[in-house]
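Please complete every field before forwarding. Incomplete forms are returned to the sender.

SECTION A: IDENTIFIERS
Entry label: holo-683
Bound molecule: magnesium ion
Molecule representation: SMILES string

SECTION B: INPUTS
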Amino acid sequence: MTATLEMRKSQKIREAVKNAGCFSNSATREADQQLAELDLPHFKAEAWKYTRVGYLAATKWSANPTSEIYDISHWKADPEEANTLVFVNGYYRADLSSLHEMPAGVIVTDLKTASEYHPELLEAQYGKHTVNTEVFTALNAAQPFGGLFLYIPDHVVVERTVQMLHLVTHEDTIAQPHHLIRVGENAQVKLVGTFGSINSCNAFVNSVMQISVGKAAHVQYDKLQAEDEGISHICTEYVHQDAQSTFKINTITLNGKMIRNSLHISVNGKHCETYLNGLYVGKGRQHIDNHTQVDHRVPDCYSEENYKGLMDEASSAVFNGKVFVRQDAQKTNAFQNNGNILLSRDARVNSKPELEIYADDVKCSHGSTTGRLNEEALFYLRARGLGKHSARRLLIAAFASDVLESIDNKSVRAMVNRYLQDRHNWSFD
Amino acid sequence: MLSIKGLKAEIEGKEILSGIDLEVKAGEIHAIMGPNGSGKSTLASVLAGREEYEVTGGSVTYKGKDLLEMAAEDRAREGVFLAFQYPVEIPGVSNINFLKTALNEIRTSKGLEPITAKDFLARVRERSALVELDTKLKNRSVNEGFSGGEKKRNEIFQMAMLEPSLSVLDETDSGLDIDALRIVANGVNQLKNETNATIVVTHYQRLLDYIIPDFVHVLYQGRIVRSGPKELAMELEEKGYDWIKEENGETVDV
Ligand SMILES: Nc1ncnc2c1ncn2[C@@H]1O[C@H](COP(=O)(O)OP(=O)(O)O)[C@@H](O)[C@H]1O
Ligand SMILES: [Mg+2]
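SECTION C: PREDICTED COMPLEX
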């Protein structure tokens, strides 16, 4: 009985996005068939225990490929320099985007164009690393509205940042961007993803990103989620690392109604480095869930994860960090830390590091703390003349500083600071 | 400058200060001595505005104002300074940024412009030299990984930077070797003038060889049981605190 009811829920959303995708091929059709068999996650499912998503079926969502013009200047990373691809309600907007000349062989375009001009490259990449048994991934993969298609050949270093600038607008909008990124052997790129909203109290962003990091390649991704209080966002990334590659991701979540980040990183070649940092800041009744997974399949790799949460008012957060160290993955070094500060009595955090280690010669550690601002330190600062607010701000900035310092892109960092100033009245300079 | 009358304070329902009277005038140095647990730090904390302590009686007037009505930060802005017995380590907050923020919030409260970067640095250079504070420590996180002696010097450095009117030094001598003690005492003496006052809280007479008090008070079981000139400290050193305890009706194992 329950099953059919839940089934109806996922199929309602499936109906809403029918024919909303920007292309279709055998992979999208396959995803759609898989979707037909899937329910929305039940709260009894371990991975969704503390995050309820059933309410997403209560809205009659609609895809909304609008051509309205917006001022996007304050969302832009490296305004004069970056390649900025703008997605409104998940659809690519060439008119708002700015693309620069790129090194020879680099393809930077949108998914729809790629499906027309580079179908064989798209086919080789699309769906290669996604897991369509995850209902939100299948939902997106069946109907991708638009996305970045980035192909970087071997040995090419892309100097200019590539930004995916997302905006969602209007009531009851559903948006499904899907980004495909392939970074060749020994190549390098810096990515920025920003998510915002304009004039919407209820919208649902279901985004997917696939990144292939080639042998000895370097990829850095700074991701900023700052949609308004009414926006739900399920954000799923699949990262595939080849040998000797470095992948760094910073996930900064500053607003939104319900944000779920599912980050899957699979480390498939020796001597890789993987860095995952996160900062989430909650207020009101926001709910922020970070599920991360690093799958060490081979020996001699290094991963380091550091997520920090600052939760105010009645907000809640979930952190679940899975690290698999497979039997073959000897000499793995994997470190994980999750720290949370509760700024009010009503804020809550569920933190669960999960190390599953099947190899015997490894160095792994994890730590998780949830507490309040140090009262002794607050008094010390106030006894030197700092007001309550500045004393709190200093301690908060100190707590978040290591994650903020890992943000590579200066303009993203400025955006974060500005946002924290406007929304929380914390100045961090 | 400071007038304490019949001050009573408790924590978690336990009375710690049972009626303290103390008058401190500008230009004076007062020493408060007493055995461990007698309430010295409690008195210092109550003066600095720690909220865990509940004042249950008496009054404290500072520069004509009701000190007990003021928040901790307002007391600091009005010139009250507590050198902590146990300075807190604050990872991630740079010593120097914190001091600059403190100094500027104090200045703003007085309607003054923020200090210029140049003046600030000049002051840091001059005042850290006063207590021979290692330059590296200025840029580190507040007290993080400092040795006991470095923490105490950092307290006096902060005092030198903020130029308070009333300084309460809580066991600033404990954990210092003789050289460090001399340096800290020298810092305090140099900052001393006709317009400010110092209360030196100490367990031992040792510090008072370097900072010469005008008055010595003995605190025992939450009361000042004896006050006198600096010679009282010598007497305490000779006879020990048992003498005070016996006088106050406690049996002492010999
Ligand atoms: N936070 C506290 N909770 C309970 N008792 C306390 C607390 N702080 C101090 N006390 C008690 O108050 C008494 C005086 O302590 P304190 O003022 O630190 O003495 P002193 O500084 O003279 O050694 C002691 O008996 C101590 O145990
Ligand atoms: Mg004490």
